[in-house]
Queue: 2 jobs
Job 1
Amino acid sequence: MRTQLIRKLGVPLLAGSMVLSFSASATEGLYSVEALLDADVYDADGQEIGEVEDILLSDDMSIHSLIIETGSLLGLGGREVVAERGTFTVRVELEDDNEAFDDIDYEVHMEATQDAVKALPEYNEGWWNQTKESLSQAWENTKDTSQSAWESTKEATSSAWHNVREGVDSMGDKAKEATNNN
């Protein structure tokens, strides 16, 4: 049974698959999802624009997108937008320059200005369904292309093997003929 193309993350730790940047003393390769949720988000100018509300994963469990709540005041009136992988970086901020397990905080830095962030797609059922369909179609195209490549490779290999076998048989016949003539 096929699993959903995009899943909400429900595990406490995530082996990173995002484009990330870190301070020199941070452990690379292992990131806490719990710490990333509610992390402050900054625009390209360094202005705080919201916080991470959710994390979406693709079928291969890599990060597909972050859901960022922007423009809320005391948790009200905000808008949830979708920031796809590649449009942000995550920086590890260590409290008091101490690399203690509980003292790691994250900041998400967008490559977009505040105006560009406002233009990001809103996270809603329409976006979800459209993205799910697009990813499903991409998978079908990849599957069809892979199947076609496999069939072509199998056919070419079979043809090459047949040609080699005929060449060897021909060489054997010529060797036999040459031996009989001598």
Job 2
Amino acid sequence: MSFDSLEDAVEVGDEGPRITVEDISRETFVRYAGASGDFNPLHYDDEHVRNADYEGVFGQGMFVAGIVSRVVTQWFGIEGVSTFDIRFVEKVLPEETIHAFGVVEEVQEAPDATTIELALTAETDEGTELATGTATVTLGESNL
């Protein structure tokens, strides 16, 4: 997203785009494993999962992080992102839907740039929190 001026950018409490990924499947986890190189059998092998005392396969944490990161990049682009932190809270399971969103927590204005602190969340349709995080974005003359 581009802004005509720094003043038009954002205010504390503004909400960014909501990213929704519906009906996640075991195949989604396998495809992500192929793309990321994370072939931990907890994400696709029922016998391994049972032997590890889990109820069933679950998605990679970084799969969820990737969805959350789309909130930031669709809102501001990638150029000004200086930090992105994520904390995994719960496992994402097959057939769930993930909703990721962000809220502006702080805006620091300077003569040549504005720094924006974001609070980020990923949750299921039922409201189960999957991950929380933060991101810092700097908007300046070079990325307006």
